[in-house]
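cache lookup: miss for this entity combination. No prior model stored, computing from scratch. Input as submitted by user K.M.:
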Amino acid sequence: MDVPTEEHLLYSQRPEWADVLPLEQYENITPLAPIFYTDEYKDATNYFRGIVKSGEMTPRVLELTEDIIRQNPGHYSAWQYRYKTLMALKCPLDDELKLMDELAVKHLKTYQVWHHRRLLVQQTRNPGPELEFIANSLQNDMKNYHTWSYRQWILAYFNDDELWSHELDFVESMLEADVRNNSAWHHRFFIAFQSGVRNGDQDRDAIVRRELAFVKERIAVAPNNASAWNYLRGILDHAKTPYSELQAFVKPYSLPQPPFGTPPEVVDLEDPLPSKEAQLPCVAAIEFMADIYEAAGSNDLMKATELWRSLANEHDTIRRR
Amino acid sequence: MSPTILPPLKKGGHATHCKRCLSGLPSSQVDLDPTKMALSFYCLGFLDLSGELEAKSKDWEREHWRDWIWTQQTREPIMASNMHAVIRQTEHIPLGGHYGTGFRPSSYMTATEYATEEYSDHNTPHIIMTYTALLSLSILRDDFSRLDRKGLLKFLRSCQNSDGSFSSEPLGGDSDLRTTFSAFSISSMLDDWSGMDVSSALRFISSCRTYEGGYGQSPSGEALGGTTYCALASLQLSKQLESLSTQDRQKTVRWLVQNQASNGGFRGRTNKDADACYCFWCGASLHVLDAGDLVDEAAMSSFIASCQFKYGGIAKTPGEHPDPYHTYLSLAAVALLPPNPSGEASWEICPLDPLLNATHQTSSWARAHIPAPKVDGDHAL
Ligand SMILES: [Zn+2]
């Protein structure tokens, strides 16, 4: 028979916890959706309620709250009380961050994991390692909302030139891995247009040109990619550039087949053509052309209506109406 | 378009799934404890919307449920008349309850011995739970005589931050468009907007708008279906939807329509897979923008039909396990954007108020009973 180790003993069986008065959960009325707790969870939370009542903030509180968090990562009060205790005890927060590295991977979708981390980093004021941690964490889930939000928060909150310096490369590598990752496109917009002007980026027209060139290239590689087309529209709206200025680039994508039987002899770097394998016409391009015609008004309205109709009938099964 | 034959919507089985969750949850779902009030709302909401509430529950059960929800309402300290409170105050021990009154998610932090005490900083009310508690009580046709309206307004004020956003709890927690929407709904149900600074709240909403036309969870976040609904419904509840320019409105409509995938379901973000809950978040957003006719309702319903779990309940995608959240929101989407004509009577559902997210009967009940009773003209109680 195994001798039960200390870890497997309930708090109520451990002499070093005998001085804490456990407090049972109040449930004297038929509750809605009662949860059938395990004995371990019931025991730990009884002791936690007792600790909170007495206001104790000692190292064993860290053991207890970690235990509860591992059983229920959404336990808001356990996180909150743990943080208060860490502060009260002036604990080395690097150890806590190491523990969070482990818990973040396990509970990637739990809000509290990320919230706790923000609080810690606000104390350590050492955001550097965080970007690498996030990059690794995104390898497990490339579109995790919390992870991306945390990255944007780190960048904006500390707003340090060194932190920003590799951001464009980072997002480019993310898009390299998956050109349809909208979270990465969104992050790129955040870097380019929404997070202030950093050293070297003062020429805003140059930034717009850089981003237009970038998105056109990505559209050429994979034309049927809503994220890229939304990004293109986003740049134009942001820079207040009329869509018609993109007509030369967009039109070939709105036609049933590439405009040339053979690849053009001169590659137009400014307006890259769809690749030979591209599935054409591209719905987003037809929509874009229709918007150009609609904005032009009068005679072109007819063309716009025609395009909308073609979209409804053939190319876009879902938006029939 | 050719008429689509839909398989039946098995409302009875889905209602059983919701009722089963109300009766008890396995220990593996312990992470729902801090959001249990919301879970209860999805279950009750389904029973209400499907017309199964009376059939699936007894009078005494509904009475107990009401009582349980009221026990989650925190108590404000009764000053002066309460000796205990006076003593604590003179000892400079922080007195619980000074953030106003709201509802907790559950009793998970409430100890039996101290159940009737004022709340501590570690057992505070939660703004999303408060919104869902008010709706659940309306579904259960409570008369709201136990509602502390003044405390509720104070609670909203203590949750609002300087940037106009709302924290989920007075001492912190998440603050994003879900908490903003809860504050707007509560104010609207109370018919009293004195619990918030409306103009800074509106500024926060517009700061969450993204280049795609949707709204992110917070100012630099990616456009997301759920929070886009929260933003638009908040604007409409405060009668500010007109402040969106025609171009912005079109942009939002375009992004929402683009989110209907080829399988008929809606995705929550560009290029993600469809998920049943976004049929509501995106569909209701389009409805609020008066563009519900752009939804292919038949395709949406057939996607939802495919998410039905054979033993009851609706899952986020075909083949997944069901849960009350996706079960309720799928039905709410169908109620708002019915497949017409479906040739299947099971798909006919009573209409929904898209702003409060409840049947019209329930939202009328809320609007009739939650505001402070008016006494001879101007003097409110
Ligand atoms: Zn979902």
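stored under new cache key. The two ends of chain B are 56 Å apart (CA to CA).
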